[in-house]
Amino acid sequence: MTQNYSDLLISGERARLFIIGAASLGVILITVYCLIHGITIVFPHLYYIPVVPAAYCYRRFGVVFSAVLAGVYLIIIAALAAPAAYALDQTGQRPVP
Predict the structure, then answer these.
(1) CB of 73 within 8 A of CB of 47?
(2) Could you tell me which residues come within 8 angstroms of residue 55 by beta carbon, excluding any fewer than 6 positions away?
(3) Cα(73)–Cα(55) distance, rounded to whole angstroms?
(4) How many CB atoms within 10 Å of residue 61?
(5) What is the pLDDT of residues 11-55, one digit of tens each?
(6) Does the CA dihedral 90-75-47-33 come out positive or negative?
(7) Is pTM beyond 0.85 here?
(8) Which of 15, 16, 51, 83 is most buried when burial is the number of CB atoms within 10 A of its CB?
């Protein structure tokens, strides 16, 4: 009796969405952690991790996804770094992914 293992595997489309979603959630959590601990310099480059695959796999959606992720980034910066106005100023000077 042969079994079809393709049902057990995640399809390519689902895998891409899962990886991009998990990377996005991970980057957002790292952003919150870094801002709570006063780190404002290095972590914004982590946003490239979900943006590049999204732009590669879903061209038009990748642009929209990047804009939404950038908006989330700015909201988190404004909410958590409000006492440190320099962090918001530095955010405006950096290119947003």
Answers:
(1) yes
(2) 62, 63, 65, 66
(3) 18
(4) 12
(5) 778 888 999 999 999 999 999 999 888 887 888 899 999 999 999
(6) positive
(7) no
(8) 51
